[in-house]
Amino acid sequence: MDLADKLIKETTTMAVYRRLYDLVLSGRFPPGEWIRERELKEMLGVSSTPIREAMRMLVQERILESVPHHGVRVKELSLKELKDLYELRAELEGMAARLAAERGNSSHFKQMENLLNLEHAHRESTGHAVDAIELNNRFHDLVVEAGGNLALKNTLHHLRAGINWIQVMAWNRNKERHALTDYQHRGIWEALVNRDPQLAHARMHEHVWDTISLMLNSRQEEASEQAGESDQAD
């Protein structure tokens, strides 16, 4: 294989990797769903080799999991794994907010303010959970960007993979979550604009921890409902 062919192969693999990563992140492939090579070939229009290599990369990153004699599926987090993940995320998001308060500029803060207005308008109109979570993620991305730490940005982006679908289910169960998120985001933004790193950290930490509490409760309710349906079937 010459250099040109090698570069094309690597480029295709990374393109497939990013596309599959985004599909998992968006909830197109929810936790527990099997990833079929044939389906991806039809969806992405590429050969088997880059698909297999991209899937192997995602297995190594624990976004997908390989089950012997069955195939590859989106990793489904247990309640313990979910809690551990959000304990870490709460600390890192808090750090991002602290850095944003110290390093952010007026342009960053103005973009956040515009996004807050969009969040409010969305809540007053449709209130659809998928769109609300997308706006939520954009706000968090802006905070991280304002902090200017690329390693932190990449780490948080990785932690978010595979969680959006769980968030959608949790937010659909609790219609008040949209309003609370709007309120908490505005409080975080005010702390950033006022250049208060400690307050920004505390408010972001509380916001993320409220999210994990909601998601854990939702998962427990879902498990109870499934157990009840099973008992009725018996």
Automatic annotation (TrEMBL):
InterPro entries: GntR_C, TF_FadR/GntR_C, Tscrpt_reg_HTH_GntR, WH-like_DNA-bd_sf, WH_DNA-bd_sf. GO terms for molecular function: DNA binding; DNA-binding transcription factor activity. It comes from the Bacteria. Residues 10-77 form the HTH gntR-type domain. SUPFAM superfamilies: GntR ligand-binding domain-like, Winged helix' DNA-binding domain. Keywords: DNA-binding, Transcription, Transcription regulation. This is GntR family transcriptional regulator. It comes from Paenibacillus apii. The lineage of its organism: Bacteria, Bacillati, Bacillota, Bacilli, Bacillales.
